[in-house]
Give the backbone structure.
Amino acid sequence: VKKAKTAKDSNTHGLTKCRVLLAELEAHPDAWPFLTPVNQKAVPGYRKVIKKPMDLSTIREKLTNNQYLNLETFIADVNLIFDNCEKFNEDDSEIGRGGHSMRRFFDKRWTELLD
Ligand SMILES: Cn1cc(C(=O)NCCCNC(=O)c2ccc(F)cc2)ccc1=O
């Protein structure tokens, strides 16, 4: 029997789904370019082109610090990783293909986890 949803309940369930989704993204074979912030000293042009860098370790930090209000704000940061990747990398490159692969995986998994 589905309990009446309070704001707190939705938040808790939403955050549990964030933890599940983040763990799966971190464990994905194509996750390696996205596990840590892009090294802006080592990657020419990145600082100028990408206005809002994002990566899985930063999302992990924000989740640990309770900085995500709900599933939507979490999904927005994950999509930022993939949008940055598409902006900076050719589709036909190792990292570009990895970003598309991860986005397809994420889209499938969060829609499966929806209530
Ligand atoms: C998302 N993006 C990443 C890069 C990039 O060059 N990233 C370097 C990845 C180096 N990191 C690793 O190799 C690694 C990290 C953790 C791990 F557990 C195993 C391997 C360049 C453009 C771009 O748009």
Remarks:
- The chain has a mean pLDDT of 94.
